[in-house]
Amino acid sequence: MARRRKGRDISGWVIVDKPSGPSSTAVVNKVRWAFEARKAGHAGTLDPAATGLLAIALGEATKTIPHVTDALKAYRFTIRFGQATNTDDAEGEVIASSDARPTDEEIRAALPPFRGDIEQVPPKYSAVKIDGERAYALARDKEEFEIAARPLHVDSLDLIARPEPDLAVLEMVCGKGGYVRAIARDLGAALGCHAHVTELRRIWSGPFDTEGALTWEVLEADARTPDLDAYLRPLAEGLSELPMLPCSAEAAARMRNGNPGMVLSAADVEYGDTAWAACQGEPVAIGTYRSGELHPVRVFNLSGEA
Hints:
Shape: globular
Distance between the termini: 12 Å
Number of domains: 3
Number of helices: 7
Largest sheet: 11 strands, mixed
Oligomer: single chain
Number of strands: 20
């Protein structure tokens, strides 16, 4: 018989305003410990030096992580012109330099190729796997390797401010798997002057933004106290990108056993769409809608985790 994992029966989302320094994994572990949760995960990694929104799921909310991870995300970042680094950010070594500095008009003119459905080569210092090894580990060992380009949807990319000739502030909204550092690197190359990221902040991700987010200071001060539960958001917030279909208690029982259950259809739901069922407002399952029924793929157990 499997050992029951220690911790509280607690499920929901915690939105952390991550400071610069700790890794995303370290923040997740801190939140899991602070809430005394059995299980935790995050919806989209931030580099240690990056700040801003890190959406952390506890308990049954971890089953909704893919739907937040796949949603659009927004970043505000500062790039420095004139230097390329081996990590594409300020943490790395300078590997090339230039005295050229682009004008605002030149920056704006260079942005359109970076919008829409593009191909992006991730930075060599990234968590991408190459033959089973992390790229950053190979890069630290001075190994020679290439990373294949990956598709990325960039919904928008705009110049926001130009505090000085060496610096530019941009905002980008993109899909899953985007690397801001690669945008800076490639933009610098397109402008013929080299560039790297000096500051990076995620300002929203899918249904979540940083308003009212849990800060690192509060996390440390209120850890393992009832006060921290004020920052726990409902599991259903991670499903707000999907249509919700009400169901009866009988249908909910069927779905919780892995069987299709009758749901009330909605005008914006078609055959084959992914949706989620709720009974009296409580999430029951995520699944595929077919002819008045939801065929469950992931089922929620909010009355007590196994």
